[in-house]
Specification:
disordered N terminus; 16 helices; binds iron/sulfur cluster; 430 residues; Rossmann fold; alpha/beta; 3 domains; 15 strands; four-stranded parallel sheet; seven-stranded mixed sheet
C-alpha cells in the first residue's frame, strides 16, 4: 500500500494528455452498485459470496430494510472456507437453495464474487451453470465480479450488464431499435421514453429494464445510446453482438441531453422540425432551471478526484453550462470509446489524471485549494476539516441527475455546499 508509481504522461488514444497514476486508491468496490441495481431490476436477487466486510458494506450502503424483504444477501465466507477446509461450492449451493425456497418467483439470480472469493478462486461461473441446468430455464443464474481489486464501484454495474449481454436473444427479423444502456431511475426512464416516443422512435428498450425475465433482443440494426459513462465493457460486448454505438455526450444538463437525443434522432432519420418542436420546451425549461444556481457556481474552481467515472461529463456540464472552472479532472479509467465526445468539450487548462495516487492527489488539492472538490466519502471529511468544501461523488449515483428535467437539481447538488459555506462565513462575522 502507498507505493507511488506515477507515471506516464501522454495522449490517451487520441484523447487529452493524461497523467497516469498507479498508487494508493480510495474508492468503493463494485459491490456498491448492487444498491442501485437491485432497486432497478425488480425480479432479481444478488447473492454476494464474500466476507463480513462485504456484507457490512452492502448492508450499510443499502440501509436496513425493515419493511420489505431485501433482494440481496451475502454468503459469508468463514475461516474454514478461507483456509480451504470446506467445500465452498457446496456451501454456496446450500445458500442458493435457501434463497430460492424463500423467493420462488425470482427470475434472475446474480452470484457476485468479491475480493476474498476471487482470491480463493471459488468458481461461481460453474456453480451458476449447474444451477441453471437444474432449473431447466426457469431461473437465469449469472455470475459476475464485484470485487474491489483494481476496480472502482461503478464497474460493478458494467460487469453485471456485460455478463447479461450473452443472455440477450438474437433478432429473428432485421429491426431497427434503440437500446438505452445504463440503469436509470424509473422517473428518468419514463421521461426519456416519452420524448423518444414523441420523436417517433417506437422500437425502444432500456437495459437494464425493471424486469429481467424478458431481455431485449439484439443484432444488426440495434443502436446503443449509453446513459451512463462507465459502461465501456458492456458497450463492447453489445458491439460484438452486432449493435452500433451512437456517438454522443451523456445526458447531463440541457446541452448534454439535447446532444444525446440528437444522436438518436439523426440515426433514426427524425425530421429536423419534429426534433426541434419536441426538444424546444424541455431544453428551454432545463436552461431556465440552471439560472438559480449560476450565480453561485460561476467562476468557482472545481477539482474532481477519481471515483465514479462520471467526472468528465460532470466537468463538461459544470464548465459549459454553469460557468465553473475545472482545475483537475481525474478519473479512475479513461475509456476513449465512451469519452470520445466528452473530452474535447472540456476547456483548455484542465489537468487530466487517470488512476490515483492518494497522497499526491491530496497534495495537489491542498496546493490549489479549489472552491469545491468532488471526491469519495473517505477523503471528504479530512478535506472539510482543512476548510475545503467537498461533494461526495457517490451521492450522484443515488440521485436522478440525467435528462432535461433533472438539470437544475444536478446544478443544485454542487451549489448547495458553496451556499452553505457562504452562510457559515456570514455567520462568523455576526
Ligand atoms: S469486495 Fe473486496 S473491497 Fe469490496 S467489501 Fe468485499 S473485501 Fe472489501
Amino acid at each position: 500500500m502507498g507505493a507511488v508509481l506515477a507515471t506516464d504522461v501522454g495522449r490517451k488514444d487520441g484523447g487529452p494528455d493524461i497523467t497516469v497514476e498507479r498508487g494508493q486508491r480510495a474508492v468503493f468496490c463494485g459491490l456498491t452498485s448492487i444498491v442501485w441495481l437491485h432497486r432497478k431490476i425488480q425480479d432479481a436477487f444478488f447473492l454476494v459470496v464474500g466476507s463480513r466486510t462485504c456484507a457490512h458494506l452492502i448492508q450499510s450502503a443499502a440501509g436496513v430494510m425493515i419493511f420489505s424483504e431485501p433482494r440481496f444477501a451475502t454468503a459469508v465466507l468463514d475461516d474454514r472456507d478461507l483456509a480451504g477446509m470446506a467445500d465452498c461450492s457446496e456451501e454456496v449451493e446450500r445458500m442458493i437453495a435457501k434463497v430460492l425456497q424463500r423467493r420462488p418467483n425470482l427470475k434472475t439470480l446474480f452470484l457476485v464474487s468479491s475480493c476474498p472469493s476471487e482470491v480463493i478462486k471459488i468458481d461461481l461461473e460453474n456453480i451458476a451453470k449447474r444451477y441453471r441446468e437444474r432449473s431447466q430455464g426457469s431461473l437465469r443464474v449469472i455470475s459476475y465480479s464485484g470485487s474491489g481489486i483494481e476496480t472502482t464501484f461503478t464497474q460493478g454495474e458494467d460487469s453485471c450488464l456485460q455478463n447479461l449481454v450473452p443472455e440477450m436473444p438474437v433478432h429473428t427479423v432485421e429491426k431497427n431499435q434503440l437500446l438505452v444502456v445504463g440503469s436509470l431511475p424509473d422517473i428518468v426512464e419514463d421521461q426519456f421514453a416519452r420524448l423518444f416516443g414523441e420523436l417517433g422512435i417506437e422500437e425502444l428498450n432500456f437495459f437494464p429494464g425493471r424486469q429481467s425475465e424478458t431481455l431485449p433482443s439484439i443484432g444488426p440494426g440495434t443502436r446503443i445510446l449509453l446513459a451512463q459513462p462507465y459502461l465501456g465493457e458492456t458497450a463492447r460486448a453489445l458491439i460484438a453482438r452486432g449493435a452500433t454505438l451512437l456517438a454522443a455526450p451523456f445526458p447531463l444538463g440541457a446541452e448534454g441531453s439535447l446532444a444525446w437525443f440528437r444522436a438518436a434522432a439523426e440515426s433514426f432519420n427524425v425530421p429536423e422540425d419534429v426534433f426541434k418542436s419536441t426538444m424546444r420546451a424541455p431544453f428551454e425549461r432545463a436552461q431556465r432551471s440552471l439560472e438559480g444556481c449560476k450565480e453561485t457556481l460561476e467562476n468557482r474552481r472545481i477539482a474532481f478526484l477519481p471515483d465514479s467515472q462520471l467526472e468528465i461529463p460532470l466537468a463538461r456540464f459544470l464548465s459549459r453550462e454553469c460557468g465553473m472552472v475545472p482545475t483537475e479532472v481525474s478519473t479512475p479509467f479513461y475509456d476513449a470509446l465512451t469519452m470520445a465526445q466528452e473530452a474535447p468539450l472540456l476547456p483548455e487548462g484542465v489537468e487530466w489524471f487517470e488512476g490515483q495516487d492518494l497522497d499526491t492527489a491530496l497534495d495537489r488539492v491542498r496546493a490549489s485549494r479549489p472552491d469545491l472538490t468532488v471526491c469519495g466519502m473517505g477523503i471528504a471529511n479530512p478535506l472539510e476539516a482543512e476548510g475545503l468544501r467537498t461533494k461526495w461523488s457517490i451521492e450522484l449515483m443515488f440521485s436522478p441527475i440525467q435528462g432535461f428535467d433533472q438539470a437544475g437539481d444536478l446544478a443544485e447538488l454542487f451549489a448547495r455546499p458553496l451556499r452553505r459555506q457562504a452562510r457559515l462565513e456570514v455567520g462568523s462575522w455576526s
